[in-house]
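Q: My hope is that you can spare some time for a protein that puzzles me. Underneath my words sits a plain record pairing an amino acid chain with its backbone structure tokens. Those tokens are not coordinates but codes from a learned vocabulary of shapes. Thank you; the sequence and its tokens follow:
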Amino acid sequence: MTSVSSDSHMWNLVFLQLLLEENGGQVVNLGACTPDELVMSECLRIRPDALVISTVNGHGHIDGLRLIRKIRGHSGLASMKVVIGGKLGIHGSRHAGSRAELVANGFDAVFEADADLDRFLGCLGLGTPAPKHVASTEIRST
């Protein structure tokens, strides 16, 4: 997983990594502001089941299009599952033209900030975690 090259936000990636791992995923987090070339070289080296791109700075649509065109243009990465999600533009969610353009250029799925979590996890072949219960022996007083 990674952010787009212009996105310096890291906490969304930490949260997403924890979410994916809690649902059975194995994650390599490339971090924030990841250059396109590094994303591609790491995907060629690691050969992930899927690349998850998270963005919150509102430029995900622009940077995501550039990155997916490079990925789909590389013979070694052309068939890799790639999804993007978060705040894809500066005009808020439900910018249908952006989603359609991202999919038309090669993303397997696009998830805006208010997307259904089960749908996102299902797209990656992961399950929804069972609710965690705190056992009485785990309760601590302050």
